[in-house]
Design goal:
Elements: H1 2-40, H2 49-60, H3 69-87, H4 90-109, H5 120-140, H6 148-155, H7 163-181, H8 184-206, E1 211-217, H9 221-232, E2 237-242, E3 249-258, H10 262-272, E4 277-282
Antiparallel strand pairs: 1-3, 1-4, 2-3
């Protein structure tokens, strides 16, 4: 009886999380659609990837009613989403298809709304920020609106390129095509938009509270570990290491701190051991009930 009840509760929680995730995907898609329709398209500025290709084709075939951005972005993405189902999974494909359809529908709804700005620089900056925030929200909730990265994942298994390199090469051709269709200035604004959107996506996915992973090698590891806990309030993890030159065993301290705590951490370590070896690394994401981004 209790086991059945637990399963029902678990199912209800999963449904709630699913609904919230799809609501956020709609919000993200809506932000991206607003950026495209109200900022970028009126100023003949595009993004990279499938969205960029769809914008160029919709401009070239603007006299054909059935060929519009919404239709193109769905049709061009579907083959990659199908491949994504095989490569990444069913949940990713469903979330991505939902995001793409939401983007197409909302973009069509905004088609007759007057643009917010007609100044290319403002359109580039604010359009890029809004687009990046929207795409970032979709990615953070398990979806995607651009199949080029999926294509990159598939092709890089057979080609000597990384996914990032493949996407970059593809976008070079897209922006070159944009220069031919719209003009060089518009293509340059498009590159700026892509860069701003790319950085905004990173910020949305990783969050504003950037964390650093720190490795400390010191002969006074006990004192250093206690000082970090006492003065920073950060727990540490002790790892076993061995010197490559001396072959002596050493205890290595591993700790995660916020970006603003790095300077204080270095001062804490220097107070105890000025010869300590410190390595500071960027982290993609930090999770855990015991970690809080507090500044002491």
């Amino acid at each position: 009886m209790e086991e059945t009840k637990a399963k029902k509760i678990h199912r209800k929680e999963s449904l709630g999380h699913l609904i919230i995730r799809f609501i956020f995907i709609i919000i993200g898609s809506g932000m991206a659609a607003a950026a495209i329709e109200l900022f970028l398209v009126p100023n003949r500025i595009i993004d990279g990837g499938i969205i960029g290709i769809s914008l160029i084709l919709s401009f070239l075939f603007s006299d054909v009613p059935i060929i519009n951005f919404g239709t193109l972005v769905v049709i061009l993405n579907l083959p990659f989403m199908y491949s994504g189902y095989k490569q990444i999974g069913k949940t990713f494909m469903i979330s991505s298809v939902f995001a793409i359809i939401s983007l197409a529908v909302i973009e069509e709804m905004l088609h007759h709304v007057s643009p917010f700005v007609n100044e290319p620089v403002l359109a580039t900056v604010f359009g890029g920020l809004l687009l990046g925030a929207g795409v970032g929200i979709v990615i953070r909730n398990g979806g995607s609106m651009d199949g080029t990265e999926i294509l990159g994942i598939i092709l890089t298994k057979k080609l000597p390129f990384s996914v990032g390199e493949f996407v970059m090469f593809l976008n070079v051709f897209i922006f070159a095509w944009a220069a031919f269709v719209f003009g060089i200035e518009e293509a340059m604004y498009s590159v700026m938009t892509y860069y701003i959107a790319f950085k905004t996506i990173d910020t949305v996915i990783q969050g504003l509270d950037e964390t650093k992973a720190v490795i400390i090698v010191s002969d006074y590891y006990e004192e250093v570990s206690e000082a970090i806990l006492d003065r920073l309030g950060r727990g540490t993890t002790k790892l076993k290491g061995k010197g490559g030159f001396t072959d002596n065993e050493k205890d290595v301290i591993y700790v995660v701190v916020t970006r603003l705590e790095v300077t204080k951490l270095k001062a804490v370590v220097a107070d105890i051991d000025r010869d300590a070896f410190i390595t500071i690394m960027n982290t993609q994401e930090t999770k855990g009930a015991r970690f809080k981004s507090a500044i002491h």
